[in-house]
Amino acid sequence: MEYPKDPYISIHYKKYLGLEQLLSAQRLRSEDLEKPAHDEMLFIIIHQVYELWFKQIIHELESVNKMFKNDYLDERSIGTAVERLDRVIVIFELLVQQIKVLETMTPMDFLEFRSYLFPASGFQSFQFRKMEVMLGLPADQRITYNNKPYHSAFSEEERTELEMLENNGSLVKELIDWLERIPFLQFNEFSFLASYKEAVQHMIAKEQQAIRDSQFLSDKEKEMRLIMLGDTNNYFKSIFDENAHNQLVEEGTLRFSYKATISALFIKLYKDEPILQLPNLLLERLIDVEELLTVWRYRHAQMVLRMLGKKIGTGGSSGHTYLAKTAEKHHIFHDLYNLSTMMIPRGDLPELPEELRESLGFVFTKK
Ligand code: HEM
User: Does residue 361 line the site of ligand 1, with CB under 6 A?
Assistant: First the structure.
């Protein structure tokens, strides 16, 4: 697009926004084929709007990934990263809402032009894949169909870009590196992990005692509950035993390294300490993004069921069945969800040494 180089030359709204190209990019196949279908305009525009929002999300993720990429993260950047992720979250909420606009089209109206779309499909959306990869969805955990890798839909150049991002550009990877660098887990004599372990054992002992002392449970029920609590105890195994954790990483159940997991746990448990508040918000925002992406997958799958029933997709998948599986399986930050299992009540939290608490506070509030 030709653009005036002089910043003081006025520019027209239409030119600035490239409206000529944008508004002439809705070419209806049904009209070309002289079988005009009214709803094809909506179908095209809604996909274009999605692609524009995908572009904005990628823009935000690129900037966040860049902040985390260095060996040193300026703490001031965390606030900016949280703000940018907030924006991504609001956009995702909009993307979920937008499905309703599409649902004003009935299955009959869709059938007016659906046959002209083969084999085009959202499966070929490069930006959607880029977004998934930039967040950190690993290739080996993807559900595919027709025995083809997910990126077979793209040009060689696009495939190379996705592979590069997979190896070295995902937010999960940057997050793990950052978490591994976080100090405070061992502070002079204080070991966070040892104190936490003691606190968990204390908490479980209290819960066991409460069950044994209960006047409302039968002996059989008490026995059952104590067995169930034993399982809860098992949940903590991966945090107390580095080998057990590494085993889960090897199996693909977890992705964070042991050190990164302990750091994230420390942030979440002591999130009220002033300098941990933003890091905790960052972790929460990532869970929000993941949650909304899953909601979108689920809503999209439900819309497809409503629109197509059990018909196969134009891209050749099983349609709703394939999409519902992606909603169930395509998760990125499950390590963060897993931390909720490790939470203990504030009252049971090990007290931090005074010097460490001061280090986690704001300078001007220090005595
Ligand atoms: C009538 C409307 C729609 C129908 C019937 C539909 C149907 C489908 C189906 C069946 C698939 C699975 C692949 C295939 O076999 O084609 C799919 C994938 C996909 N669609 Fe849609 N879709 C619709 C609207 C949209 C819209 C508005 C978007 C927004 C960009 C979208 C984005 C996607 C994406 C990103 C995938 C790949 C999902 C994945 O593999 O995880 N779809 N769609």
Answer: no
